[in-house]
Write a structure and sequence with these properties.
Strand content: under 5%
Number of strands: 0
Number of helices: 5
Helix content: 40-55%
Radius of gyration: 14 Å
Structural class: mainly alpha
Shape: globular
Length: about 90
């Protein structure tokens, strides 16, 4: 947005729509910084592996993927769990 963009195509907004609305419309830098690590984790093992893991942990979906995709590793799932707790604590 600071570089002149007028919007975004966001994987993360599927899991955190309200906060990403504020990031875009209010240009909330602090909120964007809060999600920086989660956004990194979403792509750590490729898309859509990370976002499906987040949505499953939030109870929104079941974490089913079709081959050749596989669910997030236990290590990534644990990091996502920790990051979700951090985000929730910061609200």
């Amino acid at each position: 947005m600071e570089a002149g963009g007028a919007g975004l195509i966001s994987v993360a907004s599927n899991a955190f729509p309200e906060d990403f609305w504020h990031i875009v419309h209010d240009k909330d830098r602090a909120l964007q910084a809060k999600y920086a690590e989660m956004v990194r984790l979403l792509f750590a093992e490729g898309n859509p592996v990370g976002i499906k893991a987040v949505l499953a942990q939030k109870g929104i979906i079941q974490n089913y993927l079709r081959l050749p995709l596989v669910p997030a590793s236990k290590e990534l799932q644990n990091k996502i769990t920790q990051e979700l707790a951090y985000i929730k604590k910061k609200q």
